[in-house]
Task: structure prediction
Amino acid sequence: MNLGIKLLVAEDDPNLGTILKAYLTQKGYTVVWAKDGEEATNMFEEEDVDACILDVMMPVKDGFTVAKEIRKVDKKVPLIFLTAKNLEADKLKGFEIGADDYITKPFSMEELLARLNATMRRSFNEDRPDKNVFKIGDFTFDYAHQTLVLGDDIQRLTAKECDLLRMFAINFGQLVDRNTCLQKIWKDDSYFAARSMDVYITKLRKYLKADPSVEIVNVHGVGFKLTRKE
Result:
């Protein structure tokens, strides 16, 4: 799905910047590389980019400042932050600005690619309002009508159950990050929001038991995956 997608990578470390550009280009993305925050802002204005990967700690303008400027003109373009920090306050600040994901250095190129691909899938599918009916095993899930149907059995879902199941269905077979769920649906990643989400996932699992071929797998400490049983 990445062919034809142009990325803005803003990274002031020349070694990491070179590696990121080469790796992501090899994986089929078109990459423009900015070496400081000012250059990143200018490139975003000049280039028709589909997503941005922003280092937080950059000269001239930091990544948060660049993201705020981008969000003034584009509310939807996916933003992924790269940072050497692992502070909760920084993560919250990033998500408040409108980040789609947040990766702490050091990270593997494979992790970055997986998160980028997942972010782009979500972005493309969320921009398609027609993508509201899903086949999940023997179930038919109708997001717009808030129903999960199996044969003659119709299960009515709450709005949050629908939002959560749709996120899993869009990314069927793919890992969905816990924090992404919390930020996208609960708009909060506190302990209480996380416990609330776990309750909703338990409910969804109960509904899906009627078809033993599908399940929501918990990837400990990372997220969830809606998939077919092996």
Summary: The first helix runs from residue 14 to 26. The chain has two domains: 6-126, 133-228.
